[in-house]
Amino acid sequence: MSELEILESIFPDFIATDQSNEYNLKLEVPVQLGEPLRTVRVLPEGKDDHALTLSLTSLPPLLLDIILTAAYPDEEPPSVSIRSSWLSPPLLFRLHGLLREMWRPGDGVLYDWVEFIRGGEFLASLDLSLPSGVLEIRHRTPQDIASLFTTFDDSARTALFSQASYSCAVCLTSVKGAKCLQLACEHVFCRACLYDYWSFAITEGSVEKLGCPDPECVKIGRESKEEEIARVVSEQEVQRWRWLKEKIMFEKDPSLVHCPMVFCQHPVPKPKESQTDTGGDRLRICPACSFSFCGFCKRTWHGAVQDCPVSQAESVVLEYLAYEEGSEKRHVMELRFGKTILRKLVAKYQEEQLNKKWLAESTMACPGCSLSIEKSLGCNHMTCSRCRMHFCYRCGVKLAASEPYAHFSDTSSGCYQKLFDFVSEEAEWQPF
């Protein structure tokens, strides 16, 4: 077997021969960076500042145009010209000299050339690698070269990943990388299993399960990135996932209000710098449609000085209830505002007061997010379903997540030995 046939069998992706002339061939050899040459610093020529630091596994290939002369390999090396998108002409000239020096009379040198370039050994010979293991490359336009390096490295990683086979931890089968997805945590699953897992979670509204299915990642609650989810599920499911994320954000932050515009309904956060004294904390500006409104009455912004219509309505109701039914002043208010409207406002006000009374008597507010929680049975150690805050249901104090029951063992606490509230009820026996 000739040297060229051996080279084609070992590196079929690197070599291309000229059909018209079997002695002319082209080699496209990528540079694979092993440890520690994984950090690449791209600098402008003649300067040591504004360096761009990259973490790469490979560099764009070098193109070798080779002519096998009649005197090769006994009397002279092959004729070669080198092209590169990132090596400067002086460095290419030095590399050309290094390749010619590797030839020995009577020995083939093509395999040694490929390995010399593919393994990155020539980088140290060209003084591009520092003793610290960092690779330094200078160019006229560092930004362009850095973009070239990053793009090629991403494509090389993808190609390498697609060719390999991986064991899916869900279906326990070996699947080709082209049908798999590697998450940011580096766990690999087949796309079919990820689709079933994530699609079901989105349909059921369990956004917290939209993460890596690996038990370790599930334990710490690691969520997947949007670009990973978009590569597996449909666009409609991605939109529903975004909507669910916004809904959960709205529930966790009681200061968020929905934009009152029917076509928008986007969550609007509270201003970062609220002006409580002037009423400016009620101002909300929707980031989606730029509608300015009052966060209290949900109407167009009426200014910080003017009283809110909702607070005005409440004062009218209180004044109306202060008068006895049938009194002259109450009759005047009915004529002024309308009897039907006043009755509706009174009914709404009384209902709100009853709700507030029930919440105060029958529930405990979470100290983390103010969510009202009612306990039907069980111990007094509570975990908020919204913000996951641990607290005592009896006194409302926050509890340490690592040791929540220490509060009930503290003799100085008012809840000492009151983890459970027992109500002694002795049933009376009566004979028939």
UniProtKB/TrEMBL annotation:
Domain of life: Eukaryota
Top class in the EC scheme: transferase
Reaction catalysed by this enzyme: [E2 ubiquitin-conjugating enzyme]-S-ubiquitinyl-L-cysteine + [acceptor protein]-L-lysine = [E2 ubiquitin-conjugating enzyme]-L-cysteine + [acceptor protein]-N(6)-ubiquitinyl-L-lysine
GO molecular function: ubiquitin protein ligase activity; zinc ion binding
Database matches in SMART domains: IBR, RWD
Protein name: RBR-type E3 ubiquitin transferase
Pfam families cross-referenced by the UniProt entry: IBR, IBR_1, RWD
Source organism of the structure: Mycena albidolilacea
InterPro entries documented for this protein: E3_UB_ligase_RBR (IPR031127), IBR_dom (IPR002867), Rcat_RBR_RNF14 (IPR047548), RWD_dom (IPR006575), TRIAD_supradom (IPR044066), UBQ-conjugating_enzyme/RWD (IPR016135), Znf_RING (IPR001841), Znf_RING/FYVE/PHD (IPR013083)
GO terms for biological process, alphabetical: protein ubiquitination
Keyword annotations from UniProtKB, A to Z: Membrane, Metal-binding, Repeat, Transferase, Transmembrane, Transmembrane helix, Ubl conjugation pathway, Zinc, Zinc-finger
Any GO CC annotation of this UniProt entry: cytoplasm
Residues of the RING-type domain: 164-419, 168-213
Family membership: Belongs to the RBR family. RNF14 subfamily.
Residues in RWD domain copies: 2-126
Chief place of localization: membrane
EC number: 2.3.2.31
Membrane topology: Single-pass membrane protein
Subcellular location(s) of the protein: Membrane
